[in-house]
Specification:
By secondary structure, this protein is α/β, with parallel strands linked by helices. The chain is 43% helix and 15% strand. A seven-stranded parallel beta sheet has the order 3-2-1-4-5-6-7, sandwiched between helices. Helix 1 (17-28) links the parallel strand 1 (8-12) and strand 2.
Length: 247
């Protein structure tokens, strides 16, 4: 519980779902948090909650990670406030629906790639570079089982998450030995994305995982803490499946 005390953790997509649970977990352990998402009001509400509950500092930042410049502004804001970042969690994601593959539009495709791949690239590049200068840190990417078990109804998303695996390997080599970069690959989680699943989708997913159920958002926390701290000191460029035993 003391390992992350007074460390600075940046979480994208941090105001809800898995991101919110990650923020709460680090704040409970004494870390100061930068909560980034598109909607500043939600970030501000969560920031106030963690200040009151855990007595840590919290910086809410409006950031659309698909915007190259906004990624830079997020990093600038974090370092202006805290002077250092110890952990970056690239959690923000987007998996839009479409009626069929032929109906995927260029804007939908580009937006999906931008949120799920371009944003994590830019943030890892900027923060990882600064981590090297300051002596080290950990970058944790949130991927998806879609990267290895793609559905035809989420192909742009799956392709972006597969690209995230490549970024993980590449950044792990680029910023070694002081910065570690790893990816968590969740299976079906009951986040906001699940609210838009088609009728019967949850039952279909639960039928193909060994544990027989979808995960709650907080069930990603253990893996994130593992990759962020000393327990994974010899892990970099690694991929950890948190998918309930996807068959």
């Amino acid at each position: 519980m003391e390992e992350f005390k007074d460390q600075v953790v940046v979480v994208t997509g941090g105001s809800r779902g898995m991101g919110k649970e990650i923020v709460l977990a680090f704040a409970e352990r004494g870390a100061h948090v930068v909560i980034a998402s598109r909607k500043i009001e939600a970030c501000e509400m969560l920031a106030e909650e963690v200040r009151l509950r855990f007595g840590v500092r919290a910086l809410p930042v409006a950031c659309n990670v698909s915007d190259w410049d906004q990624c830079g502004e997020l990093v600038d804001a974090a370092y202006a406030e805290f002077g250092q970042v110890h952990v970056l969690v690239n959690n923000a994601g987007l998996s839009p629906h479409y009626p069929s593959l032929v109906d995927v539009t260029e804007p939908l495709f580009d937006k999906t790639i931008a949120v799920n791949l371009r944003g994590p690239f830019r943030l890892a590049a900027l923060v990882g570079h600064k981590m090297v200068e300051s002596g080290g840190g950990s970058i944790v990417n949130i991927g998806s089982v879609e990267a290895i078990r793609p559905s035809h109804m989420a192909l742009p998303y799956a392709a972006a998450k597969a690209g995230l695996h490549v970024l993980t390997e590449g950044f792990a080599q680029a910023y070694a030995p002081t910065v570690r970069v790893n990816t968590i690959q969740p299976g079906p989680f009951l986040t906001d994305i699940a609210d838009n699943w088609a009728e019967g989708a949850r039952e279909e997913l639960e039928a193909v995982v060994a544990l027989g159920r979808c995960a709650e958002p907080a069930e990603v926390v253990g893996a994130v803490l593992f990759f962020s701290g000393s327990a994974s000191s010899y892990s970099t460029g690694a991929l950890l499946r948190v998918d309930g035993g996807w068959r």
